[in-house]
Amino acid sequence: MTNQEITLTKEHLFWYATIHLTILGMIIGLVLTPVLAMLLPIKSQTLFESLTASLSIGVLTVSICIGLMTLIASIGPIKQLKLLKRQENYLSFSFNEEMQQYGIVATPYASSKWFIVAEEAGVIVLRRDYVAKIERIHFHQTSTGTMKGKITLITTDRKIVTLKHRKVILSKLKLWLESDLIE
User: Fold this and answer.
1) How many CB atoms are closer than 10 A to CB 152?
2) Inside any domain, residue 19
3) Which tens digit of pLDDT belongs to each residue from 103-145?
4) What is the per-residue pLDDT for 114?
5) Is 137 contained in some domain?
6) How are the residues of the chain apportioned to helix, strand and coil, as percentages rounded to the nearest 5?
């Protein structure tokens, strides 16, 4: 085994964006398991049958919770990775090959060419030469007190793209974009 890190891929981006909610699903399942085991009457002849039924309830509950949370968590990243695919098609490049070429291994990552973030069920991957201009940016406070926002961009293929994320991420994206637009 070598000490070399594995380069970033689309699959890694998806994993980074969904892992938190998948773990939350596992925790919810583990919490629900004893509750369901107590609520459901398990009538068995032997201790082995009772344990088997309880274990089955536990595995089923955890599996369903993990599956549902992963499904919910993957909706946003799948939509956002479609934007990456559009960039690849329009600019004729392969994301995975470019990450290999430049040795990019982690997110968040920002360089003169790339802005990459994958966290909290959100993925933003932009190549600088795909963004023509910033149309608008808007921030709001959620009911939990978190500052979120959305930024609307015009791309070089004349598409309008709206990205949603936390304020701190979108502020960094705005600075990254403006640094090129000023030059």
Assistant:
1) 14
2) yes
3) 888 888 988 899 999 887 688 999 999 999 999 999 998 888 8
4) 92
5) yes
6) 55, 20, 20
Domains: count for the chain: 1
What span, in angstroms and rounded, lies between the C-alpha atoms of 67 and 56? Answer: 16
Q: Is 3 a domain residue?
A: no
CB-CB contact of 151 with 174 (8 Å): yes
Distances in whole angstroms, Cα of residue 145 to Cα of each of 118, 121, 141, 167: 22, 18, 6, 12
Q: Which residues contact 141 (CB under 8 A, 6 or more apart)?
A: 147, 148
Helix (H) or strand (E) segment spanning residue 18: helix 10-39
Give me 71's structure tokens: 């499904």
Task: Assign 133 to helix, strand or coil.
Answer: strand
Range of the domain at 83: 10-182
